[in-house]
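Residues determine shape. We examine one folded chain.
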Amino acid sequence: MEDVRNGTKQARMVGISVHIATRLAAAAQEDLRARYDIGWLVHTVRYDDDGATALKQLGACFALDQSALRRYARVSETLSVSEFQWVVTLLTPRGLPLTWSHIELLPLGRSSADRGALATAASRDGWSVRDLAAKLRAHKFTA
């Protein structure tokens, strides 16, 4: 009887753990989408006549410095919405999406196909940000 209870308890713990891991992945994906949206917003205002003022206001609103805002914009300028949404769905062996730091490197890829191949390999093989940067340098994916 004790074995049955322990087995049931273990099964319940696994079920709860899977549920929590799924929620963490969804939260990470939503964080990535929010950063992309901030980048799009920065891109739409930074070349206006009052772009510098708008960037300062956005920085204050989101508690981000100007360099972070520009990095967010670089991603949204390079990766189309559909390309970005696809990348966000890729999960690492830990069940989480790539980090924003990974995604910031993807615009260095020459083409959408190169970026897709890199994102797929990085997520499938669990590459660190340094691993991805090294692959970009070594394989001449960059322009």
Summary: The CA atoms of residues 3 and 9 lie 10 Å apart. The chain is about 75% helix and 0% strand.
